[in-house]
From TrEMBL:
Pathway: Pyrimidine metabolism; UMP biosynthesis via de novo pathway; UMP from orotate: step 2/2. InterPro entries: Aldolase_TIM (IPR013785), OMPdecase_AS (IPR018089), OMPdecase_type-2 (IPR011995), OMPdeCOase_dom (IPR001754), RibuloseP-bd_barrel (IPR011060). It is an enzyme of class 4 (lyase). The gene is pyrF. It catalyses: orotidine 5'-phosphate + H(+) = UMP + CO2. This is Orotidine-5'-phosphate decarboxylase.
Length: 253
């Protein structure tokens, strides 16, 4: 997580700029450039969502070009929510890191440890879905296990153990449920959380920071996607979010 920590400190920001491009080809190419260029100053990381690129002709090429446009030193997390047996996961990892040039990925831990380990390369960031931001997530993730705790607790614990073994493994925890953020933080006191749900999904930034920041005032990457894509002035919207975070954080990182 060193590249991420360096960037968080250099930008004094916990903002992850989500890239979920919509529009016709010309609009998307123009807007992607604008959003990346205008928000870079404030971005601790960028998170392109793979689905929004795969749904376009030449989407993989567009994704590569977008990643290349991100200034050196700012991590790019490819949100692919990858999850498959290790042999297949290895190919997803090659795609994300070697073809696209991403610094990190999101993974779905439902298939177990071996679905995650192929992504755990030195210097790479892996965020495992633990407690997601969508409301119906509770139907699976809150299921109580006979051995105690819930399925999301189990995902968090798997991620923590893998982080202890390999390094570079964090969690995805939605900003739409501050109680769940606090629970995940109790289970994983040290790890980085990638936190989507602020903006279009209505997550409460203040409650999320209170629930999830580590004592060092860090450990959260707060993602927002549509709110920046749709903003008239993406730079101003990103700056405003970062300023709100400064006001709400107990201390600078
Ligand atoms: O639990 C999750 C995991 C991933 N996402 C992704 O984050 C962004 C959120 O976009 P907004 O426009 O800010 O709502 C999007 O790419 C999701 O697929 C998530 O929302 N929740």
């Amino acid at each position: 997580m060193q590249k991420l920590l360096n960037r968080v400190q250099a930008a004094n920001s916990l903002l992850c700029v989500g890239l979920d491009p919509v529009g016709d080809d010309a609009q998307v190419a123009r807007r992607l450039g604008e959003v990346v260029d205008q928000t870079s100053e404030y971005a601790a990381a960028f998170k392109p969502n793979l689905a929004f690129f795969l749904s376009r002709e030449n989407g993989v090429q567009l994704l590569r070009e977008t990643v290349q446009r991100v200034p050196e030193g700012i991590p790019v997390i490819l949100d692919g929510k990858f999850g498959d047996i290790a042999n297949t996961a290895d190919h997803y990892a090659r795609f994300a890191y070697d073809i696209i040039g991403a610094d990190g990925v999101t993974v779905n831990p439902y298939m177990g440890d071996d679905a995650i380990v192929p992504f755990a390369r030195p210097g790479k960031l892996v965020f495992a879905l633990a407690k997601t931001s969508n409301k119906p997530a509770h139907s699976l993730q809150d299921v109580a296990l006979t051995r105690g705790g819930s399925l999301s607790d189990c995902a968090a614990t798997i991620a923590r153990k893998l982080d202890e073994a390999h390094g570079g493994i964090g969690l995805v925890v939605g900003a739409t449920n501050a109680e769940a953020v606090a629970r995940m933080r109790a289970l994983c006191p040290e790890q980085w959380f990638l936190v989507p749900g602020v903006g279009a999904q209505g997550g409460d930034l203040a409650a999320t920071l209170r629930a999830g920041l580590r004592p060092d005032g860090s450990g959260l990457l707060i993602n927002t996607s549509r709110a920046l894509w749709q903003a008239e002035d993406a730079a101003a919207a990103a700056r405003e979010l970062v300023e709100q975070m400064h006001q709400l954080r107990p201390m600078a990182v």
